[in-house]
Amino acid sequence: MSAAETFKVRRQMQFVFQDPAASLNPRITVGQIVSEPWAIHAVSCRKTNGGEGW
Length: 54
What we know:
Blueprint lengths: L2 H9 L8 H4 L6 H11 L14
């Protein structure tokens, strides 16, 4: 990518600063947080299909 192309792309990007500790809900387990995207996108794993798990 040339310098001019890089400059154009960077003009369309931005940083999102986020405090990870503040973004997590202490009432939800890590397993629930990690599995949420798969549930939303209907991706299954062995554990949900009756297997041994990951």
